[in-house]
Design brief:
Elements (H helix, E strand, L loop, with lengths): L4 H16 L6 H8 L3 H8 L2 H24 L6 H18 L1 H10 L5 H8 L1 H18 L8 H17 L1 H7 L7 H19 L2 H4 L7
Helix pairs in contact: 1-2, 1-6, 4-5, 4-8, 5-8, 5-11, 8-9
């Protein structure tokens, strides 16, 4: 993506939202950091709420597109599918670290925008996750677990490093922005899938016996 005025405004806004908070950031702050006139922000986003909504829409449209790419592998098995979804999500989140941090933090605050996101994008996300877990349990590839609680655990793993960046870096001394972390963390979630979800006893049965 080229560094046009719209991109610069968006990057500056996300950076400020992360450091000063959405409420603590003014349009003037954004225009100063982006080195653009306030009228440029009005032209592209109308106002600060328009900028917020654009951030949400951009993030979740791309986020769900990545999930859908992995979901297409469900016919290859639930484990293969879930691991591919995990890979796609983590890659997207690491590629958009600042935006991911901001969006996930904002989603923890009750607001009209968040309620709208919950009723649209998160409902679609739940559909994909639920289908994968249901299929894995139906074929006995996964253990028979509570789907809702499994989704809670899975989403917790996907979001923790981005929601708790300072804890991860200052207390655990690992750094989500570094290349090795993305690779290592993907492997750790795959270990959770293999250790918690996968029904290893069923995998050892002959195909005819399943």
């Amino acid at each position: 993506m080229g560094r046009n005025t719209k991109d610069v405004i968006l990057d500056s806004a996300i950076s400020l939202f992360n450091t000063k908070g959405y409420s603590g950031t003014s349009i003037r702050d954004i225009s100063t950091k982006a080195n653009v006139n306030v009228s440029n922000i009005s032209y592209y986003f109308q106002n600060k709420r328009g900028l917020l909504e654009y951030c949400f829409t951009t993030f979740f449209e791309e986020y769900l597109a990545e999930i859908e790419k992995g979901f297409h592998l469900l016919s290859d098995g639930a484990t293969v599918c879930l691991k591919e979804i995990t890979k796609k999500i983590l890659h997207f989140q690491f590629q958009n670290l600042q935006l991911t941090r901001f969006i996930l933090r904002e989603m923890s605050i009750d607001s009209q925008v968040v309620r709208e996101i919950m009723s649209t994008y998160y409902v679609k996300e739940r559909y994909f996750f639920k289908k994968v877990f249901e299929e894995g349990m139906r074929t006995r590839e996964f253990l028979p677990l509570s789907i809702n609680y499994t989704i809670i655990q899975y989403k917790g793993l996907l979001s923790m490093p981005f929601l708790n960046t300072f804890y991860v870096s200052e207390v655990l001394h690992v750094f989500p922005h570094e290349q090795y972390f993305a690779k290592k963390y993907l492997q750790e979630i795959n270990n959770w899938i293999d250790g918690v979800l996968v029904n290893h006893a069923n995998q050892r049965l002959p195909i005819a016996a399943k």
